[in-house]
Amino acid sequence: MQLKKYTDYGLRILMYLASFDAEQSDEKRKLATIREICDTFSLSANHVNKVVHHLGRLELIETRRGKNGGFLLAKRPEDISLAFVIRQLEGDEKWIECENPYCVALPACELKGIVARGKEVFYNYLNDYTLKSLMAQAPQLRQIFSTAS
């Protein structure tokens, strides 16, 4: 299994925001911009805009319009479940599609059930982790992100 680039970008954006959010008071929280994210990760603005919009709809980030606008985390990193983020950005599609096109093995096949169970094990494992889990090296990440753009 491989995560979609869309999900990968969403996780990168959240990590970027969390790295600058760490240990900052509300007044000093850094607003990120689409340009910063694009420059830091070498991503297209079109892709980043879509992901940022989706993260905003999920109420994971807060966007602010205007001359000094940008976006920042809307929740504390410890309140953002990796399972939730990945499930939402990936879409909760089946990993095995047996009906379209119809697979002749379907009446006797165990693959669909085994893979579906594996998917649930995967998400249950991720339930133990939050965005904060990815921030153990926040100062180093912040340094990397600052020099990358």
What features would you describe in this structure?
The protein has 149 residues and is mainly alpha-helical. The chain has a single domain (5-148), classed as Arc Repressor Mutant, subunit A (Orthogonal Bundle), CATH 1.10.10.10. 50% of the residues lie in helices and 5% in strands. The chain has a two-stranded antiparallel sheet with strand order 1-2. It starts with a helix and ends with a helix. The model has no long low-confidence stretch (mean pLDDT 91).
CATH architecture: Orthogonal Bundle
Number of domains: 1
CATH superfamily, please?
Winged helix-like DNA-binding domain superfamily/Winged helix DNA-binding domain
So what's the overall shape? elongated
Helical residues, percent: 40-55%
- Count the DSSP helices: 6
CATH topology: Arc Repressor Mutant, subunit A
Write down the oligomeric state: single chain
Question: From the alpha-carbon coordinates, what is the Rg to the nearest angstrom?
Answer: 18 Å
What is the beta-strand fraction? 5-15%
Mean model confidence by pLDDT: 91
Describe the structure in brief.
This protein is mainly alpha-helical.
SSE arrangement:
Layout: H1 5-21, H2 34-41, H3 45-57, E1 61-64, E2 70-73, H4 82-90, H5 111-126, H6 138-148
Antiparallel strand pairs: 1-2
